[in-house]
Amino acid sequence: MTSPLPSPLPSPLPLLASDLDRTLIYSAAALALTMPDAEAPRLLCVETYEHKPLSFMTEEAAGLLTGLADHALLVPTTTRTREQYGRIRLPGPPPRYAVCANGGHILVDGEADADWHARVRRTLTECVPLAEVRAHLRSTAHPDWLLKERTAEDLFAYLVVDRALLPDTWLKELADWAGQRGWGVSLQGRKIYAVPHALTKSAAVAEVARRTDAPYTYAAGDALLDADLLLAADRGWRPGHGELADSGWDAPHVRALTERGVLAGERILREARGALRAGS
Ligand SMILES: [Mg+2]
């Protein structure tokens, strides 16, 4: 009896590089379930934190994501640390590649790629060191609205703040100060990120595309830290909420969706499926 022929090697799949928080997955505060209760979508919990459900997607989105697996390589592309990413359990097969720490780490089958990380570290010598940025944050943030001050993966810093009490002027002054030192600032929900300009999601996704011979890349994201990812992609989508929507950011190849909250995540996956089907 002859053994069956090996199945042909799959041709390289296009990449779908998607931000996670407030793009694919949503905390309860970000769901924006504005429809009548009886019409609200069923939700799947995809992250538990300290024994409590934390992040969700719609059941419909979960089905769409699972269905994409044979047609595109999903690359979760997040500012989360590796540890924070590790809590997320997306439906479908575990992603082969993931980008964490805003491009500071590429995970390959769950393991950080040391070569990539070393390369990133070398590019960060051009900007002011993290310690200096952190000292500035600590000395200027006010205890009235500062809830937490953290660093992530020894690459960048973030604050958790009380948005209602945060003065707009402080954020503007921080952005000016940071900009002169090679760092950018992003406000997402209750978090203010200070991230080196050289630390980008797009560079890490380009590396994944190179390694996988991806013929093209789709991207999705909601925040300023996703702008370079969207610009570098062949096609992209952004939700109707978030920093990019609020600032009126656009690009010819990036579709600005009107959906807000968890329904935007579902719509992005529906759009991606349509684009893959059309081969565009
Ligand atoms: Mg986001």
UniProtKB/TrEMBL annotation:
This is HAD family hydrolase.
